[in-house]
From TrEMBL:
It comes from the Bacteria. Residues 94-114 are annotated as: Disordered. The chain crosses the membrane at residues 47-69. The keyword Aminoacyl-tRNA synthetase does not apply. InterPro entries: LapA_dom (IPR010445). Residues 24-95 form the Lipopolysaccharide assembly protein A domain. This is DUF1049 domain-containing protein. It holds the Pfam family LapA_dom. Keywords: Cell membrane, Membrane, Transmembrane, Transmembrane helix.
């Protein structure tokens, strides 16, 4: 069932992207800097691209910036989870050590019953 929903979603997404591409085929010029600043610095870079490429690239860049921002924002949570995991492992080792000391010198069957 989930496979069919995923396929339907991908089909709708493909139709939307194709319609955007067909509706926005005109060429646009992207410049790196505004004209006045480019003249001062001497860096006058521009490129001609179809508008749909600019739209899709803008969406992709926005998603990447958002993913990076969230990854940076969640850093403190990952550090805390790592610290708690280390603490849990340390406590488990201590429990095993204490259980071993408690049953030291006892019969194995009686130690299992405790």
């Amino acid at each position: 069932m989930m496979k069919y929903i995923r396929a339907a979603f991908m089909a709708v997404l493909a139709i939307v992207l194709i319609s955007i591409a067909l509706g926005n085929r005109q060429m646009v010029t992207l410049t790196l800097l505004p004209q006045g600043l480019a003249d001062i610095i001497g860096l006058n870079q521009s490129i001609n691209l179809p508008l749909f490429v600019v739209i899709v690239l803008s969406i992709i860049v926005g998603l990447l910036i958002g993913f990076f921002w969230e990854w940076m924002r969640e850093h403190k949570h990952r550090v805390e989870a790592r610290r708690q995991g280390k603490e849990a492992n340390k406590l488990q080792r201590e429990v095993r050590r204490l259980k071993g000391e408690k049953h030291k010198g006892k019969d194995d069957v009686l130690a299992l019953l405790d």
